[in-house]
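Components:
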Amino acid sequence: MTTESVEEFRHRARAWLAEAMPRLSGAMPDRLDDNRRQVERVLQRTLWEGGFAGIGFPAEYGGGGLAPEYQRAFSEESLPYDMPVSLNVPTLGILAATLVDFGTHEQKARHLPAILRGEELWVQFLSEPSGGSDLAGCLTRADRDGDLFIMNGSKIWSSAAFVSDYALCLARTNWDVPKHRGLTMFIVKIHQPGIQVEQIRQVDGSMEFCQEFFDDVPIPVADVLGEVDDGWTVATRLLVHERNAVGGGSPYTSGRSGGHESSGQDDSLAQMVRQQGRAGDTHLRQLVAEAHVRGLVGGALIQRVTSGVSRGQMLPSAGSLLKLFSATNVMRRYEIGLELAGEGAAAWPASSAGVAQRLSEATLWRQGLSLGGGSNEIQRNIISERLLGMPREFAADRDVPYRDVRRGGARG
Amino acid sequence: MTTESVEEFRHRARAWLAEAMPRLSGAMPDRLDDNRRQVERVLQRTLWEGGFAGIGFPAEYGGGGLAPEYQRAFSEESLPYDMPVSLNVPTLGILAATLVDFGTHEQKARHLPAILRGEELWVQFLSEPSGGSDLAGCLTRADRDGDLFIMNGSKIWSSAAFVSDYALCLARTNWDVPKHRGLTMFIVKIHQPGIQVEQIRQVDGSMEFCQEFFDDVPIPVADVLGEVDDGWTVATRLLVHERNAVGGGSPYTSGRSGGHESSGQDDSLAQMVRQQGRAGDTHLRQLVAEAHVRGLVGGALIQRVTSGVSRGQMLPSAGSLLKLFSATNVMRRYEIGLELAGEGAAAWPASSAGVAQRLSEATLWRQGLSLGGGSNEIQRNIISERLLGMPREFAADRDVPYRDVRRGGARG
Amino acid sequence: MEFVPNDEQIFFQETTRKFLSVHCPIPVVRALESAPAGYDPQYWRQGADLGWTSLLVPAEAGGGSLSEGGLMDLVLVAEEMGRMVSPGPLAPVNVVASAVAAGGSAAQQAAVLPGLLSGETVAAWCGEHPVEGVIDGENLLLSGLASPVEAGAQAQHLLVAVRTEGGLRQVLVPGDASGVTVTPLGGLDLVRRFAEVRFDQVVTTPAERIGADEDAAEAIEHQLQIACVVQCAETVGAMSRAFEMTLEYLGDRYSFGRPLASYQALKHRMADNKMWLEASHAVMTAAAGAVASGSPAAGEMVSAAKTWIGPHATELIQDCVQLHGGIGVTWEHDLHLYLRRTTVNRVTHGTPEYHAERIATQLLGAVS
Amino acid sequence: MEFVPNDEQIFFQETTRKFLSVHCPIPVVRALESAPAGYDPQYWRQGADLGWTSLLVPAEAGGGSLSEGGLMDLVLVAEEMGRMVSPGPLAPVNVVASAVAAGGSAAQQAAVLPGLLSGETVAAWCGEHPVEGVIDGENLLLSGLASPVEAGAQAQHLLVAVRTEGGLRQVLVPGDASGVTVTPLGGLDLVRRFAEVRFDQVVTTPAERIGADEDAAEAIEHQLQIACVVQCAETVGAMSRAFEMTLEYLGDRYSFGRPLASYQALKHRMADNKMWLEASHAVMTAAAGAVASGSPAAGEMVSAAKTWIGPHATELIQDCVQLHGGIGVTWEHDLHLYLRRTTVNRVTHGTPEYHAERIATQLLGAVS
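Structure:
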């Protein structure tokens, strides 16, 4: 443990940031392209060299080994600077966090320092085209063949797999047991023969998500994360990390958090109203205030839940509260945005095409955060069943060998 | 069938109303007391004498035998007059309607004319203290004894049973079959030895609802409505009539309908804003307009559903759409009312105690319509299962002899 | 009274539905994304042949309808076009054709109606955003900007509302009149095109005036009501289709060994969606009936429909997206076409807030 | 930083909880419905003995708290009182005691504090509705109406905000001062009493002034913040308890052979309710922390809490009523006590709309 106090650490970080990191100039690019990703890898490398990469990760694997307060202090100090924020989710907050929990010494030594240096971007391969929210209803298979598993199947909704390096991939290794008990989590190198990555075009024109196709992909047994046939344990923990990271409550992310960013602390709504010359309209004022208040409440909720979980007074699944809160905040914020934009959301002159179009198309993507990383429905199940102890939903596939489970209709 | 056109009928009704019925003066009393009920019985008698009672009921039993357009025309013409509107629900729209569907000739001849003369007020005995929404989970029992059934048990949430005359009462007559198949519907005279009626005090201080206790109440076999052990069929139809009547879509009710009354067509919100001198506040204007629009939409929905059902293009269970709509409208209207009332909802000077207190206490009763007559949850089940054909909820008591069904906890 | 289509109208509606499913199924709509007009002129002529553009024009002026006044027939077309997110300037052409038939001179009718009715030409309606008019002898000089104007860049005719010292006026000018600059706009809908129409000292003659001066304000209000009704009907059609797709999907798709449709939380949301859908249909029909019958409540009912339908449509379709899961936010899935169309319909011809304010004005007086 | 109660605070909280459950369980609260003060003076003195009225007063002035400044301790009391819909003038007594301790003269402190701290006397805060003040030589003449004022009719001391030509001022006057007329109001809560306090040329001397003139505006704002924090904490306590009652009920109650808690539609609503509850708790604590630490964001956080908590509290409890079914709207069931309390808290000390407007002023400037 360090002997440096949080305040001492904060002062050291402040000085270092001013010296080493570029200041944020103007708005963040709202879409990640390859170029931006390259910039962020370099920024991450800069953090590494300054000793500020992975502040909450174990020191043994290149991290800072420090408590969450230190990371929070650093994040607060870093706000004026250009940070590699896209590494937070999913690489650091979800995948690296899961590696910390389940990796062998060799796995951690091989990957964590490389991640913290910005050399490896990670992604999760969990969802499947037929599976929806039922992640354990996994049809991708990995069949044992000596020291290898041979993987076949398909995964979908992975973020930016086309520019990432490694994935954690859940595959079925045993079909004769009920569904949760026949899964294994693998560390998979993405760019290799047998894996084809296709980008999916989203409603807003972005191409961030991917579908992957596996055709006899060989995976060394050494790349099993956790135990064979116990992949659901790993996946469950991964999902907890995901909810925390997406909800803004991860101890492993650095810089602005997802929860805050998406919950309305920017000034864009107020700005729109001012530009329209309608700042005196009491109805619009209520809406602008509502969005702002939701941001403040979301921030307070992150504090409450992360503190509660870290002190063991809340279950880790309380992260679902954060995920659900920020997803519903986003829905409401876009609705408010649409109400404020008015006719401008329908059509726009070429002169303002960029801004207006993005604003308008963003509303098409309103449900994005309510679907990705576990839908709102799944979060509500988790909250009611795990936090509140209400009875589990009836599952027709419980305690049935997975090969006998009904998998539904045409879209399957 | 009449040869009189709707318009001719309307003119005749208009002339008669002007002559025979008192004009509405001031606001309707917002709570029914015994005195008001007596007034309404007399008003109903006046309608009967003028030939305008029960316009949609069979002529054979004292009604007008006319199509819904005639009743609608009469209702429109009657708006400026003091009408016996409390007879609409439940007596005419629910209980008399069910009698029309299932009564024997003798039953109808005995009760329908008396109802249309204002001599019999009716009520339903369906809910039970332990039962909640599960009306078929009835524990009140009626055991056959020669030409009698002997009834024991308790019912609750009946409207104004203490001032009513007859009830339709559902009781279990067979415990060895699954729950829906062992029920019988009885015509029960309320004020008789063995029946004790207790009024329930509501949150807003009103005492409209009752609980009844049955202690060896003898019921002649001749008072079975429908078939023995087939009471659920009768109850189901009764519930359809109830949803229609409460939602404002009954062909048997006369005068202002529940749906309209509760959906915001009065001017009280606008008036409140004017009195506060805040009529220029755009936020409040949006709220007042929203309430008004909801009223208009509700009216249009009643037209659409009643027309669709009467033409056979919608299932009768579409009445659930009306019930749910008006219940959710009431919720929103009270919420808007609270927002407009502001600080005045917390405390009031003696000088305005009546109005302010009623307004404020009304919000405590906001969920009333969302619970009575089948809760919103039940309506949503009906809409999704019967109108949309989605799968039925799992019921642990299906196909199980009722004596073996688990009936739950402490509150039971 | 609830509007009930008669057999003839049902046949007409089915004809339109079949035509759209054969000639303009959704892949065709998608393929029109970068077509300048957003529709194929041949398709529009065929639609005109089916009667799409004739319904508000009396038979003696070359039009024809199944119902009195034709608005209820037009509603059926609009619903079908909404169900298929179809392209084509249905609202502006009908609004302008109706206005010319009602208030145009014989010469104007002869010059404009045949083309609109046959689908050879189209018209745009600039009635929502009046420009400034200065009286110059007999003529009226127009200046200002009308935007966004549906089909502005495709229109041979522009029906323009003009604010003059003496009150509102209306003129019908050629799309290529001198001083008129039409600039296409980008937009959210894949095939519905808007433009901004700029008037720079555009000289209009008395022969270009439409209707009596003193009737202009009322005529423009009536045009707005028709435009809103057509738009609301289209939105309701889009809502219906999105709802049906979702209901079907929930039945097909299994999760945890059960169809999604068996989950009560989803069932209850579908129940609410069904209620919003039926309520939207109801208030749209009521508004259409009020406009068709010339009811004094027409303006109120139209604003009620616009206030109610816009937000409920987008909310319903967003929930359909949510119920579809990830596939619902992909380009490949059709739901976003419905979301685009209903979002555009929500915010044009007056936002819900604008129409709520019209209602408030009636209840509370104008804001001082 | 999230506020985490230490062991001492937890003990304090548990003591308060036990005291309330023994001395003021809900049947006792109900029995106080027609008591003029809404509470038993003996109960209030016992609460004062536990420390309820001392927390914002420094030890040297006779008070004492577990945490710096005591506001976080007071929040714990308020939450407990919310859980039991307890009676007693917690907010006004603490606001006034704090103000007197901070700005009162030695004479004022000696005259007022001992009684408030022991629970022998109570005070009312008229800071939200400033009356008019006219300077008359050394004196200030007060005229106007402050309403509604919590515990106005029970208070021996009134802390009054006064609008003068020179700006806001504060005076502390006896409840029975000449020219002061206190009229009890009817109200929604069974035991929380409000009054209107009318000032008719009430003469106040310089010795009755509180604090330096130039600090008055800021002091009043600080008092409002404390009042809002106490109120929000009480509301959060009430929400928590209503939520727990409902969760338990859903587990106990069977319908169709299954516990209500097994129905997904109800589970999902409880999940949302849990989220609103935790969010309310979070923003209340954040606001309390900001006020306690003198953060410049205190006003903003307090208004955020007031904007958020009020409507979510009533909505959550209304949903608890719905989930209980018919029993939830009976007088016999306790839920309505919670609904009454949270409704009153929602609309007093500024409605949610009022506080949203404060936030809007910060973001968009004042309405011109």
